[in-house]
């Protein structure tokens, strides 16, 4: 793993070269995206949960039914946790500011992805 | 190309994710207030506009009203409890407060909150419908419908007269009595003391009248 590079904070879209792992939780309710930030090379973990604001689920579909698998890409931003110079104090970021898309692999059984 | 909106949306998503339990609790609180207001309103209408008492109603309607009100009470009570539960959480639920467990527990609680809220809404609406039905029953069912069978008989308090003539007696409501004679209106149905014909007005010339006696009923 390459050393962390304390780049200047900059909100730019980057294109990762190294692959990211996208892991769906056992109950299928959240995805964890793990990999190295393409900009600062810090390891970053990004979690996306299935939550409110979704379409109303039918009354007969109980909560045991797990949510539809996510398709497309997950926008991920760097949360390497390292301090980066010139990061505005009001920014909710915990990284270098870079963000990128991680494609979601085709649906696998929840938790089955190695 | 940098699409900052995409990043802002992702940031908003992370924020919502952290605060979704708070968000649904606030939503549930609003709903609880709304439902409580609605219930109070309908209850007030029932108290103000409902019939004073169900005593005069026929038994079957009295029991219907009582059953509707009892059902409404249970539904509204459980609905209110569900709404409070949605807004403030269940007492006595425990989980390990470790990161992953808590994350899953929050997602669970969000779903339970929304289920409780949906159930509260259903119960309140059904309970309100029951109250309105009880109200409608109390308005529509006539007072003393039980006495409907006796409706043909003179209602107490309406004076009747018994007119005795040389040919027999006539009974009915006194319409007019003057020097020329007595007019009575006979009620429908054969009166026990009435020797006359069917209902309608009957003019009895004064010459035939022997006596006119007020009676309670014919
Ligand atoms: Zn970094
Ligand atoms: Zn970074």
Automatic annotation (TrEMBL), chain A:
<feature type="compositionally biased region" description="Pro residues">
    <location>
        <begin position="103"/>
        <end position="114"/>
    </location>
</feature>
<feature type="region of interest" description="Disordered">
    <location>
        <begin position="1"/>
        <end position="25"/>
    </location>
</feature>
<protein>
    <submittedName>
        <fullName>Uncharacterized protein</fullName>
    </submittedName>
</protein>
<feature type="region of interest" description="Disordered">
    <location>
        <begin position="89"/>
        <end position="114"/>
    </location>
</feature>
TrEMBL record, chain B:
<feature type="transmembrane region" description="Helical">
    <location>
        <begin position="30"/>
        <end position="48"/>
    </location>
</feature>
<keyword id="KW-0472">Membrane</keyword>
<protein>
    <submittedName>
        <fullName>Uncharacterized protein</fullName>
    </submittedName>
</protein>
<feature type="transmembrane region" description="Helical">
    <location>
        <begin position="125"/>
        <end position="145"/>
    </location>
</feature>
<feature type="transmembrane region" description="Helical">
    <location>
        <begin position="60"/>
        <end position="81"/>
    </location>
</feature>
<keyword id="KW-1133">Transmembrane helix</keyword>
<keyword id="KW-0812">Transmembrane</keyword>
């Amino acid at each position: 793993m390459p050393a962390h590079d304390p780049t200047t904070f900059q909100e730019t879209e980057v294109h990762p070269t190294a692959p990211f792992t996208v892991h769906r939780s056992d109950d299928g309710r959240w995805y964890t995206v793990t990999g190295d930030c393409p900009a600062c090379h810090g390891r970053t973990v990004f979690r996306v949960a299935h939550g409110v604001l979704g379409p109303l689920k039918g009354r007969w579909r109980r909560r045991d039914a797990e949510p539809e698998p996510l398709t497309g890409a997950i926008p991920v931003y760097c949360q390497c946790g390292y301090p980066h110079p010139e990061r505005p104090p009001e920014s909710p970021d915990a990284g270098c500011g870079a963000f990128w898309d991680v494609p979601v692999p085709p649906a696998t059984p929840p938790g089955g992805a190695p | 190309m940098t699409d900052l909106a995409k990043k802002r949306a992702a940031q908003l998503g992370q924020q919502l994710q952290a605060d979704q339990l708070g968000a649904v609790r606030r939503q549930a609180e609003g709903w609880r207030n709304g439902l409580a207001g609605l219930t109070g309103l309908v209850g007030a209408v029932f108290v103000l506009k409902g019939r004073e008492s169900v005593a005069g109603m026929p038994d079957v309607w009295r029991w219907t009203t009582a059953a509707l009100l009892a059902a409404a009470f249970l539904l509204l009570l459980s609905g209110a409890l569900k709404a409070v539960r949605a807004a403030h959480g269940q007492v006595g639920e425990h989980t390990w407060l470790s990161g992953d467990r808590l994350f899953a527990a929050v997602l669970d609680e969000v779903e339970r909150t929304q289920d409780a809220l949906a159930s509260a809404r259903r119960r309140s609406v059904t309970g309100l419908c029951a109250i309105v039905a009880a109200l409608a029953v109390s308005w529509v069912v006539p007072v003393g419908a039980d006495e409907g069978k006796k409706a043909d008989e003179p209602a107490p308090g309406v004076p009747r007269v018994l007119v005795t003539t040389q040919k027999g007696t006539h009974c009915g409501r006194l319409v007019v009595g003057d020097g020329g004679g007595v007019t009575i209106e006979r009620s429908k149905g054969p009166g026990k003391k009435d020797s006359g014909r069917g209902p309608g007005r009957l003019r009895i010339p004064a010459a035939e009248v022997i006596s006119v006696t007020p009676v309670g009923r014919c």
